[in-house]
Amino acid sequence: MKKDERIRMKKIIGILAMAVLIVPFYTLYATRCTLSYAAEQKIAVSVNGVNISEAEVQRAVDNQIAGGIFHKTITQEKREQMRKSVIDALIDKELLYQEAKRIGLGVAKSEVKEVLKRDMAKFKSKKDFYKTLERQGLDEDSYKDLIEKELLIKKILKQEVEDKARLSEGDIEKYYNENKNKFVSPEKVKLREIFIKVPANATSEERKERKKRADDIRGKAVAGEDFAKLAKEFSEDDYKEKGGDTGYLHLNMLDEEVAKEIVKLRTNEISGIIEHLYGFYIFKMEDKQPERLLKFEEVKDRLMIELPLRKVKEMREALINSLKAKAIIKIFQ
After folding, report:
1. What's the CA gap between 269 and 261, in Å, rounded?
2. pLDDT digit string (tens) for 185-215?
3. CA 282 to chain centre
4. Read out DSSP for 107-176?
5. pTM for this predicted structure
6. How far is CA 119 from CA 30, 31, 109, 129, in A?
7. Cα(38)–Cα(298) distance, rounded to whole angstroms?
8. Which residues contact 47 (CB under 8 A, 6 or more apart)?
9. If you compute the radius of gyration of the chain from its CA atoms, what whole number of angstroms results?
10. pLDDT (tens digit, 9 = 90+) per residue, 255-308?
């Protein structure tokens, strides 16, 4: 395998690993609440006879909130919405864990120990680590159980989803050949523009004055003055500093009325004054690129990432749906 292919595959594997996680590890930094005995005893969900306590649900909700940007402004209504999504995720996790155990996957004690050691190293001291566990309603043994569960979930997803979702370059090219209509680049134009703004509250007289200003500038451009310099001097839009250079644009990105006039222009031709609600445009056509089919080499790198990710998502959903179809799930209010 060539060096660039190895690099690309490493990137894909990294993205796939992120894509298959259902919910993140129970991050020790996240929760800062004391779980009540009642919450520990109350059952929120039962999955094939295995109970998930309300405490576990609230712990996961708190982790999500703590990891969010606006965690200080979470309303009770939003928290309840998050609770529902968290319950769905915990059901998925429990089903995957049970399936991993059923098919004989296992986790070595050394693997659990390594994760525990890594998590503990994030704290200033072991004492801080154990205090945080206590605040989450956990001890070392229950935290090890969580680690084992997460590792088993990752293993089953790798075995049943990631590894089976890998696509070769041949698979990617086959998809391209069967879907060429998806890889057509529409007609593009490269323009320079000058825009003379008209205030929203302008009178008809003021609008006429702005139109005359645009006419005068266009006259200079048609007479041979440098369009880019005129744009820098007179234009009143964001392209001004680039000499009016818009770069390449698809025609469907432009205002419909503007596009109708643009499409008529030949290369290096200057448009007439194009009137718009907010002002007056003058365009110079710099280049036109007709609609064309993108070559496989132009889209290969993007597809080598996008298609495996799409397949991972589809296969993960199919796996979980098949497990749900056979499961006995009870959600308690």
Report:
1. 12
2. 988 999 999 999 999 889 999 999 999 999 9
3. 37
4. --HHHHHHHHHHHHTTSSSHHHHHHHHHHTT--HHHHHHHHHHHHHHHHHHIIIIIGGG---HHHHHHHH
5. 0.65
6. 13, 15, 15, 8
7. 59
8. 91, 94, 95, 98, 327, 328, 329
9. 30
10. 888 888 898 999 999 999 999 888 999 999 999 998 999 999 999 999 999 999
